[in-house]
Amino acid sequence: MIKYARITTAAALLAAIASAAVIVDESFEGARFPPTGWEKVQVRGAWTRENVGAPYNWCAYFHSYGYVGGMGTLRTKGQELTAVEHAVSFVYRYRADPGSGTTSAQARVERLESEAWQVVSSWPLPKRSAFQLYEFKHAASVAGTYRLLFYADAAQESIVFFRLDNVTWESGPFTAVAPASLGRVKALYY
Description:
Jelly Rolls; six-stranded antiparallel sheet; globular
């Protein structure tokens, strides 16, 4: 449900914009990979950076190289979150060359519990031959340490190609300036 609120002062506008906190904002344009605050785990495959040209330029790229059980995870380090709603958006491209097995790609949010990471939410990503925007929301049921991760794998002799860019993870409440007028703020309620 989208609601509009009239903002009549500059102070009210700044307060509305500042109410959402950016946790992660990564476009993979820097020379360091993985970027600061990220970790990669790769089993029979590799996470690298790849230049795919405009408009995305550099992106994170996983290729399983056709190994049996090829898999890779790119994840943020743990972030302290409060018990509010959070939003994640990113663009991705995922394809697989058919072999005798299956492939998958997904985005996950995990919470640290008793020194072990537990999956809070998981979103399977459909195959896309062109970059596609994907967005989801999740609520932190309790304050704690959370991380965001992207996972791709290939079973048997299939090959998975997974590209990721423009990852944003925000903590609500969410407001954004409506493009037509600085006097209106679009508040997003999930």
